[in-house]
Amino acid sequence: MPTLPRVLATRLMPDAVETRFRAEFDAVGNDADDALDAAALADRARGCQGVICTPTEKMDAAAIAALPDSVEILATFSVGCDHIDLDAAKARGLIVTNTPDVLTAATADITILCLLGAARLGQASEATLREGRWGRWSPTFQLGVDLSGKRLGILGMGRIGQAVAKRAAGFDMTVFYHNRRKLDSSDEHGATFCADAADMLRQSDFLAITCPLTDETRHWLNAERIALLPDGAVVANTARGPVVVDDDLIAALDSGKVFAVGLDVFDGEPKFDPRYLDRPNAFLLPHIGSATVETRNAMGFRCLDNLAAHFAGHPLPSRVV
Ligand code: DGY
Is the ipTM of this complex over 0.85? Predict the structure, then answer.
């Protein structure tokens, strides 16, 4: 029997994925699911031809340089690749793959949840109930704002942005988007392209951030851009925390410029700006955009498919570099 390729998984994966991983590879798993810094990762990867990593491992130039020479392929259990220095990977001849498509629906769903959860003050309302502070029904209690029929701006019209636009149509929203390029009309789902982000922001009663984190999008939502939003706008970020300037967003929440925020991602997560916790108009989730059984299985299987294709010499389902 041919020797199976040796592959390290830096994190414990869902059961169905672990089962296939152990059947198809000489698997070096991480049952303890402990955090691996670059040195520990390189140590565990000794003798491995492949590594499955996740956004919790910062695969910067130093971490990539520390990988044993035997490692040919890095399969990230994510669509986002901002934790990987792709230039360093390329320079070293390291193949990188990711998991697009399979998490689009789940992440678009959570974007709608963040928009609605924020607009309807979901977390503050639930806290009222859990903490036994619910008094009588009242015409003025916990008043949110309607989502239906409003205008939505989408920053980043990739697969997830497009899936959000599709869902927004079900809420009779008028959708605008800002993206590096205008999409074919069949991919716009009725949304209008704004080449100038300011045009989109001025019309965004709701703003959904669904772009990748790049040098261009880091700290994109700052005070200057927030000022362009209509008063009382609602902002959701399900992309990456650093796209937003927390100080500026919190100031806008406090002034009422922004009515509420729905955040699934945070700068420096799992740490985050604790001031959000004190804001009743902040609907907060711990980066669970793709966290469903079906989606996480599909993401894991996509990692395994990429690895299997590489070792069989076949084209890779989702190669990044
Ligand atoms: C990704 O895949 O990049 C997500 O953020 C993980 O849910």
Answer: yes
